[in-house]
Amino acid sequence: MIPLRNITYWLLWIAAGTTFVVDNQVFGGPEQPSSPDLTDDHQKVAIFAGGCFWCMESPFAQLKGVVTVESGYTGGTTTDPTYENYMAGGHVEAVRIVYDSGQITYKALLDTFWRQIDPTDTGGQFVDRGSGYMPAIFYQDEDQRIQAEQSKNELAASGLFAKPPAIPILPATPFYRAEEYHQGFYKRNPLHYANYRQGSGRDAFLRKIWPQQTAASQESDQELRKRLTPLQYEVTRKNGTEPPFDNAYWNNHQEGIYVDIVSGEPLFASTDKFDSGTGWPSFTRPLVPENIVEKADRTLLTHRTEVRSKMGNTHLGHVFSDGPPPTGLRYCINSAALRFVPKEQLAREGLEHFKTLFGTKR
């Protein structure tokens, strides 16, 4: 069964065999070794399977006390499985988490795990179907087993789901580290990752079940307050407006793209930027229309159209119908909601496919 995460990747895989090229990077080659033993007596291991392992790395990696998160294969009977044959050996995609038990508990990891999956679906997860995407908890010892069972029972009693959780709780088997191109995929290929999460149905499901938790890849409000400046937080989370002519990008003429300061999703390009005379960055159109959400705004006793980002739910600004050709639109955006990525740094951030924008106006 060929996964549906990114059809471009899988076509390249078929064409090139065990070694293939994506975005000028060569992937595949020799098998990856199994995960090494722990080197710190205070470290412990947790292993969870929740469908696509790309989507399971990020939520755990941002937790305080988590040392490492790696993608791999486990639960099967064969040794040294690869991406091409792990299902045939009975393995599932999983993540192996090394954590400091003095900073974070196994229960906290379990709570995070439940909030990434559909615990009533044992035939796969979301768009990915088949045995290789079966969710499961793999316990390391009797204490983990007891905690996992208790956590599962608590989830069943919560009434969040129409059916009881059916996730198996199994003894851990050897874990085999996946190929290097799978490791940290959410960081190295943020656009592919964001598009996959959205298209797979995972994020929509999680937003419905956990209304206080938006996309699993987003930071908590407390974490955002620490990372953002007061002005950035006021604009992005409180729908604020920064001063005109006194912001980072109103007069920026460099070539590159502008991404959401919260989520990193691509929003606008310098090729569509123009001087509107307003003192705020202005664009004729979005770079990725699917990443923009427009909403009616009547807060100033007049009708305006607010612009927000889809993944980050970030307040960006407003769009008006007094812009120049070819669209006649003016996306008036707060610099505080944006981060600029110069064209020379696009490859470093996994955005190299946007380099074709530069040299000619769209």
UniProtKB/TrEMBL annotation:
GO terms for molecular function: peptide-methionine (R)-S-oxide reductase activity; peptide-methionine (S)-S-oxide reductase activity. It is an enzyme of class 1 (oxidoreductase). One of its GO terms (cellular component) is cytoplasm. Its EC number is 1.8.4.11, 1.8.4.12. It comes from the Bacteria. Pfam families: PMSR, SelR. Gene3D superfamilies: Peptide methionine sulfoxide reductase (2.170.150.20), Peptide methionine sulphoxide reductase MsrA (3.30.1060.10). Residues 221-343 form the MsrB domain. GO terms for biological process: protein repair; response to oxidative stress. Keywords: Multifunctional enzyme, Oxidoreductase. It catalyses: [thioredoxin]-disulfide + L-methionine + H2O = L-methionine (S)-S-oxide + [thioredoxin]-dithiol; L-methionyl-[protein] + [thioredoxin]-disulfide + H2O = L-methionyl-(R)-S-oxide-[protein] + [thioredoxin]-dithiol; L-methionyl-[protein] + [thioredoxin]-disulfide + H2O = L-methionyl-(S)-S-oxide-[protein] + [thioredoxin]-dithiol. The active site is at C52, C332. In the C-terminal section; belongs to the MsrB Met sulfoxide reductase family. Has an important function as a repair enzyme for proteins that have been inactivated by oxidation. Catalyzes the reversible oxidation-reduction of methionine sulfoxide in proteins to methionine. This is Multifunctional fusion protein. It comes from Desulfobulbus oligotrophicus.
